[in-house]
Design brief:
heterodimer; A: about 260 residues; mainly alpha; elongated; B: about 260 residues; ABC2_TM_bact-type (chain A); transmembrane helix (chain A); membrane (chain A); cell membrane (chain A); Transport permease protein (chain A)
């Protein structure tokens, strides 16, 4: 029987959460990049592909409304992936080794950074939504739609954080940072990011259909896309997808974490 | 004088080779630079192909061939960013301080890093053009057009690398450099990377005129398609060279400032 003493979970998670939030002030410019980039991406994407709404089968006549949820998810995803990059830095600098020998359950070591990432993600998501609406995006789903958009964003941030943390504990170097962010990009791009399912062609049509992020986007698009009404049919696939990805990447992160220090 | 120049060119060559070998030493780190742009190309080509049905979309023999210059540009941006991340890594690990103490011109340290960027960009451009060709892209401009387009993208990569190095040298923070990653796509989407400039929304159309990469991507498109109506290659070359020269100067000035402060 183990006589190991463990520290209560809540104070540990709280402390690591607060430390994770400290990244905002500790890394100069980091919050600037992660907040402003989705915003400029919103403007760039809507400007680049805005004329696509002229095609038949596009569910809205406002491309801005189509990409606001996409950019919210991207901003949230980057905030999540940053949790992995920060963990990789802690591993490289040896600080994480000290945490590993502490009498703390290992899942708690990643819970704080995930909560920190979710908190930080609220900044770009809110910024994108506010600016998007200010420059012409519609809020067709009302308050409930906006709640669902936040739910989709926060959930996707948690998924991206799990993915980033898994990469961090596997590669144990900050140079894996682009790999963490690439995962977010791929998840978003290989979906109905730019055009709805009927307008996709070739292999992407099939990949987007099975990519769970397409469902998460649909969950969020109930807020702004007039052709996607608020309904359970547009909600539950996104929720199930988020739950599945969180469990899958969370398990990967925990397996990597357990292997550390062996 | 000639002996000094020869010695400095050896330093530049050695640092360039080191930059490339560091990049290739860890295969997983090549993924973002060599694979991500191809995936984005595939997604854009499949996801927005319907845009060809829009009025004002120019007659081109292949949509894939039309969007490939955007991929070359993306590769150039990523290759440049990689330089900044690598130099920040050298600063954090202390290697850069040892380089600063070496009896070589400081500008050679920057030029050496950018030589590695150039090598990486050339390899990337060849890879992207080849893969797109295999998957059905048509280059009506022939081999010379493809070589010219690759050359433009590689010079632009030096420019982005110079900017990334300047930021890395000023901040010395790898975390910050990694948070800059999303901005790569800002530069990309404020240029007519994947859609013709005439089909951009009016605001972005106006903004794109101030992005030097607009002229690079249009020049590469004109070369690849063998149609200068799609872009002026000489204007592209001028923009790429001006960007490379200006950014390299910025990086050298940043290094001089850092050396003064240390």
């Amino acid at each position: 029987m183990s006589a190991r003493t463990t520290t209560p979970a809540a104070p540990v998670a709280w402390a690591l959460w607060i430390r994770s939030l400290g990244e905002v002030t500790r890394v100069r410019g980091a919050i600037f990049g992660s907040s402003l980039a989705p915003l400029i991406f919103l403007l760039g994407t809507s400007g680049q592909f805005g004329r696509l709404v002229g095609l038949p089968e596009f569910p809205t006549d406002s491309y801005l409304s189509w990409v606001v949820p996409l950019c919210c998810l991207q901003g949230a995803g980057f905030a999540g992936a940053a949790a992995g990059a920060n963990l990789a830095r802690d591993i490289e600098q040896g600080w994480f080794d000290r945490l590993l020998v502490a009498p703390v359950a290992r899942p708690l070591l990643v819970l704080g950074p995930v909560l920190g990432a979710i908190t930080r993600a609220l900044i770009p998501v809110t910024l994108v939504l506010v600016v998007g609406v200010a420059i012409g995006a519609e809020v067709t789903g009302g308050v409930l739609g906006v709640v669902l958009l936040y739910l989709a964003s926060v959930g996707f941030c948690a998924v991206a954080a799990m993915w980033g943390i898994a990469m961090a504990v596997i590669f144990r170097t900050q140079q894996a940072g682009p790999l963490m962010q690439m995962g977010v990009f791929l998840g978003v791009f290989l979906s109905t990011a730019y055009t709805p399912q009927p307008l996709l062609t070739g292999w992407l049509e099939h990949v987007a259909r099975i990519n769970p992020v397409s469902h998460v986007l649909e969950l969020g698009r109930q807020a702004t896309v007039s052709g996607i009404d608020l309904s359970l049919a547009h909600t539950w696939p996104g929720l199930v997808s988020l739950a599945g990805m969180t469990v899958g990447f969370g398990a990967l992160a925990l397996v990597g974490l357990r292997r550390m220090g062996r | 004088m000639i002996g000094g120049a020869a010695r400095e060119s050896r330093v530049v060559g050695a640092l360039g080779r080191r930059g490339l070998s560091v990049q290739f030493r860890r295969a997983q780190l090549l993924m973002p630079t060599f694979v991500l742009p191809l995936l984005v190309l595939a997604v854009i080509a499949s996801g927005t192909r319907a845009g060809r049905d829009l009025e004002a979309f120019p007659e081109v023999s292949s949509f894939l061939g039309f969007v490939v210059p955007g991929t070359l540009l993306q590769g150039a941006l990523l290759a440049g960013l990689t330089s900044g991340i690598a130099i920040a890594s050298d600063i954090e690990s202390g290697f850069f301080d040892r380089l600063l103490a070496a009896p070589v011109r400081r500008s050679s340290l920057v030029l050496g890093r950018l030589a590695g960027t150039l090598g990486l960009a050339v390899l990337q451009a060849a890879w992207f053009l080849l893969i797109a060709l295999v998957f059905g892209a048509h280059y009506d401009g022939g081999v010379l057009g493809a070589l010219g387009a690759a050359g433009l993208a590689s010079i632009a990569a030096i420019g982005i690398g110079g900017l990334a190095c300047a930021i890395a040298i000023r901040t010395g923070s790898m975390s910050l450099m990694q948070s800059i990653f999303p901005f790569v796509f800002v530069f990309l989407f404020t240029a007519p990377a994947f859609f013709p400039r005439d089909l951009l929304t009016p605001t972005l159309h106006d903004v794109s005129a101030f992005n030097p990469l607009t002229y690079v991507v249009e020049g590469a498109r004109g070369l690849l398609q063998g149609d200068t109506a799609l872009g002026d290659p000489w204007l592209g070359l001028l923009a790429a060279v001006a960007l490379a020269a200006g950014a390299t100067l910025l990086a050298i000035l940043a290094l001089a400032d850092r050396a003064r402060r240390s």
